[in-house]
Amino acid sequence: MKEYKLNQIAHKRILGRNVYKENDQELSLFWGGAALEINVKAREVYVCLSSDYADHEQWLTVEINGAPVSRFMVNKEKTLYCIARNLNPQKENLISIIKDVQPMSEDSVHWLLIHSVSLDDAGVFCPVKARNCKIEVIGDSITAGEGLCGAPEEQDWISLWMRASGTYARLLARKMNADWNTMGKCGWGIICGWDGNLDSAIPPHYENVCSVMKDEKSKSLGAHEKWDFYGGKGSDYVIINLGTNDDGGLRVLKEKGDTGREEELTKAVTDFLKVVRKNNPSAKIIWVWGMLGLETVPALVQKGVEAYKAASGDETVYTLELESLEKLEISDEGKGSRGHPGAKTHMAAAENLYSFIKKI
User: pLDDT tens, 158-198?
Assistant: First the structure.
């Protein structure tokens, strides 16, 4: 076997927000859905990983040519994992190593590192074919893949049930032959979390790599650095799926006597679109909702979007309601765990978004 540090692999693709520089020997994956992709002609492929966490362990999915082949928990100590064996060494195989777990700010420490990739002695890295476009998806637990593992009756909030590699964002990227970048955080929203916590808002973190993480190790790995948005060019499509948690959070705040937050949410939508547009000058921006049923937030989001469009003259911002799990998941087949959308709802969302994007 031959071991290759990350800076020794000329042909690779890094997906997700990161601070990797070409002379770096290792790579940190921060958000769920972040990935390393390599294209190899090799019989065997190994990857060396390490992680740390207090309560919520890290899980990875490995795909070969777009198909999931394995999913495993990452040890804390540096460990060499076999991720492919007895492949046809004459055939190119695109291997994707994808982080399944969101950044766990709930833990006192939470990080994941890829140290190296090893191939059999005759194995070689091949150029990674460029994709058609870039998409970014911003959201909450739905985008983080909560509930995409586990039986419908599972209700424990644990990282085992999270699978960011299987979300509508990934399915859409596959349909569009797109590079992807996702930032999803369970329970977070536009201005507040599901419990009314006003600190659980995604927009203040948008321009940073992964500033939801506060531990010193994550900071040292670059979590609080500014993200460069592909050298300032930004993504081609930005999909925002925020508001599900605000829907419940606003009710919690009202019960505590904290009223009038609806107007704040509408303004936050308008302000966030300004920031998204600044960093993605040519993107089509689509704000979506509906995979879980909502009451008040959709109208507030639409009002905020229209206010932004009226003030800016920007006509490449759209809204789209997606089909809900309540409508789609009428049997246990395809249902998710923890009352979250399952595979059927994520597939429908990807289909609807793909059709919508083709129209616009």
Answer: 999 999 999 999 999 999 999 999 999 999 999 999 999 99
Strands 237-241 and 133-139: parallel
352-357 contacts at long range (C-beta below 8 A, 24 or more positions apart): 352/320, 352/322, 352/323, 353/168, 353/172, 353/239, 353/286, 353/288, 353/320, 353/322, 354/172, 354/175, 354/176, 356/286, 356/318, 356/320, 357/176, 357/237, 357/284, 357/286
pLDDT single digits (tens) 204-246: 999 999 999 999 999 999 999 999 999 999 999 999 999 999 9
Would you say 345 and 336 are in contact if contact means Cβ atoms under 8 Å apart?
A: yes
**What global pTM score does this model have?**
0.97
Q: Count of CB atoms within 10 A of residue 255's CB?
A: 9
SS3 content of the chain, % helix, strand, coil (to 5): 25, 30, 45
**Are 117 and 4 in contact, with CB atoms under 8 Å apart?**
yes
What is the pairing mode between strands 44-53 and 13-15? Answer: unpaired
Within 10 A of 227 (CB to CB), how many other CB atoms are there? Answer: 19
Torsion angle of C-alpha atoms 133, 138, 140, 145, degrees rounded to 10: 10
> Do residues 337 and 151 touch, judged by C-beta distance below 8 A?
yes
Sheet harboring 178-184: ordered strands across? 178-184, 133-139, 237-241, 284-289, 317-321
pLDDT at 26 > cutoff 90: yes
Quickly list H helices, 165-296: 168-176, 216-220, 244-255, 261-279
Three-state secondary structure call for residue 241: strand
What is the amino acid identity at position 7? N
What are the residues facing 238 on neighbouring strands?
136, 285
**Judging by beta carbons within 10 Å of its beta carbon (0-12, 13-18, 19+), is residue 271 exposed, middle or buried?**
middle
Contact 122, 165 (CB under 8 A): no
Tell me the C-alpha distance between 205 and 223, whole Å.
10
